[in-house]
Amino acid sequence: MKTLNLNIKNMVCPRCILVVKNELEELGAFISTIQLGHATIQVPETLTKDKIASRLDTYGFELLEDKEEILMEQIKLGIQHYIEMLEKSTKEIMLSDFLAHEIGKNYNFLSKLFSKIEGLTIETYYINKRVDRVKELIKYDELNLSEIAVKLGYSSVHYLSSQFKRVTGLSVSDYKEVMKNENRYYKNLSEALGDLREKGYTYNFNRKEDCLECKDLCASFQIEELNISEFYRFDENEDAAGKSVIYGIETKDGLKGLLIDNSNLQNKALFRRLSDKLRDGSGEKMG
């Protein structure tokens, strides 16, 4: 057995750790330590880094060998950790001090190198990532803007709003409206249904063996005859309907309706065809 230290790009969440861990173990590796961006493993002599890189590349991960690239990834992960720290702690610490301590290098050195390689400052990258987190919290719709400001360490709601508009070009209220208008922002199944009905999806479709039927039209349709123009999946069990998916369907004659399913996908062949049809169209949208 030999020891390998792997520096891995694009590990950004706990699920990434799980995926990487599973794939490494599938290759026969014993995991000594694993965290975002790094793993130390014991492997058979025959298992090469090239083979590991090829396996991880399938999931969008990349093995890093260049020292500067490794340092850039450490800085980005450090900024992610800093934002997470802001959410969990009231302790005040400057980003520069946090990164210097976490990475173990002088902040001025890190700052100059980051600007040189990435083409923007650490501060700008941090601001963009913090605004990304604001977007996520807005979408979750569990906190008001004042609570988001406190959670992410903004000095005031006004400062958050100003920074949000400077980065995105939109006010927070305009951003919410754009998200809703683009059919990407629904708090729950009920809101999605109401809005889609208003947009003309008035007919109801149901499964029928290997096709879909619309009793309102007294007609049955093959999947190939339909266009899947909308798709939403609600993973949060917030509605009485539980976990559900909504398909927005259009016939060749321009008639629009909805197919609602509780995600148990009893007719797997039928829903595989629906998924294939969806991939040919606009793609999946999350509620």
From TrEMBL:
It holds the Pfam family HTH_18. Keywords: DNA-binding, Transcription, Transcription regulation. PROSITE patterns: HTH_ARAC_FAMILY_2. The keyword DNA-binding applies. It comes from the Bacteria. This is Transcriptional regulator, AraC family. The keyword Transit peptide does not apply. GO terms for molecular function: DNA-binding transcription factor activity; metal ion binding; sequence-specific DNA binding. InterPro entries: HMA_dom_sf, Homeodomain-like_sf, HTH_AraC. Residues 80-178 form the HTH araC/xylS-type domain. Gene3D superfamilies: Homeodomain-like.
